[in-house]
Amino acid sequence: MTFRLRAVRGLVLLAGFYLMGVVLLSAMAVLDWLLVTRLFTARAAWFEGMVVTVTILLAWAILRGMFASLRAGRLGPVPHALAVTPQDQPALWEQVCAAAEVTGERLPDELYLVAEVNAGVAEQNRLLADLLPSPGALQSQLAHQPCDGAAGHRYALAM
Predict the structure, then answer these.
(1) 109, 105, 157: which is closest to 135 by C-alpha?
(2) What pLDDT is recorded for position 159?
(3) Are the C-beta atoms of 145 and 28 separated by less than 8 Å?
(4) b vs e for 14-40, b when ≥16 Cβ sit within 10 Å of the residue's Cβ?
(5) Bridge partners of residue 112, in order along the sequence
(6) Which residues of the chain, if any, have pLDDT below 70?
(7) Of 48, 53, 82, 140, which has the highest C-beta tally within 10 A?
(8) Which DSSP helix (H) or strand (E) runs through 144?
(9) Dihedral (CA of 141, 142, 147, 148) sign
């Protein structure tokens, strides 16, 4: 798949998510408006109240999901971690530079050591960068998976 096709697919997915949320919210608002203004009767008041309440709860969930996706990718401070600079650990940064060069990725801005016996990468991306992993990132993740399997970790590949 070419980069241009991947970019178009990412844009369609990105715009489609918010478009679907707006369409669902609009459809629920129109349904509630029709129900209250056109079909309102004293006998069905409890039913209309229940439908409006369910609609409000669903709208809240949709809006929460839409705004949560806007906050995704923002990294907070790293708790219980030791920041390592190239001056502190030149040999470690040399290995990181070599790995970045082999995979075609850029160097990380920061490097932290934590007490866990595991490796992880966190990147602060916005919107399209989350949808379009680079080929080097995909190769790195695929190369890492056999190590996870050998260590007994069983979870899906998350890209």
Answers:
(1) 105
(2) 40
(3) no
(4) eeeeeeebeeebeebeeebeebeeeee
(5) 83
(6) 1, 40, 72-78, 117-159
(7) 140
(8) helix 135-150
(9) positive
pTM of the model: 0.50
What are the structure tokens assigned to 134, written together? 């680079």
For residue 155, the model assigns a pLDDT of 47
Question: Radius of gyration over alpha carbons of the chain, in Å?
Answer: 24
CA 52, CA 56: separation in Å to the nearest integer?
6
Task: Return the pLDDT at 156.
Answer: 44
In one-letter notation, the amino acid at residue 25 is L
Q: Give the residue from 105, 110, 118 showing the smallest Cα distance to 89.
A: 110
Q: Which two tokens stand for residue 65?
A: 């999901």
pLDDT tens sequence across 35-51: 888 776 777 788 888 88
What is the 3-class SS of 92-137, one letter each residue? HHHHHHHHHHHHCCCCCCCCEECCCCCCCCCCCCCCHHHHCCCHHH
**CA pair distance 153, 13, nearest whole angstrom:** 30
- Residue 28 has phi, psi (to 5 degrees) of -65, -40
